[in-house]
Amino acid sequence: MDSRSTVFLCAAAFFLAGCAPHSPIDAKKTGAFRPESSASKNALAQQLTDKDIFGNETTLAVSEEDIQAAMDGEKLSVPLNSAVILVQSGNKAPEMSMQQEMEKYYRVSTFTGIPDRQKVAVCNKNESGDIIASENMNYMQALRYIAAKGHQRVIIVYQDTLQSGRYDSVTKNMVWSDYKNEKLTDSASLRYLVRFSLVNVATGEWATWSPVNYEYSVLPVQSGNINITEQQITQLKQKTFVAVVKDLVNRYQ
User: Fold this and answer.
1) Please, are residues 110 and 93 in contact by the beta-carbon 8 Å criterion?
2) pTM surpassing 0.85?
3) Which domains does the chain have, with CATH numbers?
4) CA 56 distance to own-chain centroid
5) Which keywords annotate this record (predicted)?
6) What DSSP element (H or E) covers 133?
7) In sequence order, which ranges of the chain are alpha helices (DSSP H)?
8) Is the pLDDT of residue 29 over 60?
9) What is residue 46's DSSP assignment?
C-alpha cells in the first residue's frame, strides 16, 4: 500500500468512525472497548455513562496531590454568549424547550447523546509505523474534537429523569421512583431531575452539577387514580428547564 492510500484510509477513519487524536490531558484515559451484542442493547444502553463523559477518571487511582491540584485549578466558566454544544443523554437531539432556554444565554449547537460505540475510534500507529484503527471508549474525547473543529468553547451534557412521588403516611415523607406512565393515586407529585456535566473543549477539564430538585404538585387532590397528561409533563419540564438553566448560568458565568 503506497503512502497516498494510507493517508486516505486514515482520513476516512476520521470522518466515518469519529476518529480523534489523543491529547496530553487524556493520557491516562485508556482501555479497550468490548461492544455489546445487538440483542443485549436496550434503552439504558443508549444513555451516556459517566465513563463516556469523563473517560477513565472515575476509575483511576486518585492521590491527595491530585485532589489538591484539582482544587487549585482554574474554575470552569461559560461566559454569556459563548459557543457551546448541548447534548441530552439518550436522545438524538436535546428537547426543544431546553434548547430555547439555553439559547437565551449561549450560542447553541447540538449533538447526539446516543454514543455509536462501535464507530468511535482513533487513528494510531503500531511499532512498525503502520496506521491502525483502535476503539476508543472515551466518547467525550471524540466530541471534544468535533467541538474544537466547530470552535465551540464548552460541551454541556444533561441527564434527566422524570419521577413520580407518593406520600408515605408512616415515614411522613414522599417516596420517589422513576415514572413509567403508570396511574397515580391522589396527592401525587411529579419532579424532573436534571444533572449537568460541563467539559472545557480546550483543556478537557470538567465539572458536574445537579441543581436543587424542583418538585411540583401538578396533580389535583382527588380520590381514585389519576392519569398524567402530556400537557402536565410538558409544563413540568418547561418550569424545570427555566429554573435549572438560570441556576447554571449564574453558577458558571
Assistant:
1) yes
2) no
3) 47-113+151-252 (3.30.160)
4) 15
5) Aminopeptidase, Hydrolase, Protease
6) strand 131-135
7) 3-17, 50-54, 64-72, 96-102, 139-149, 230-252
8) no
9) G
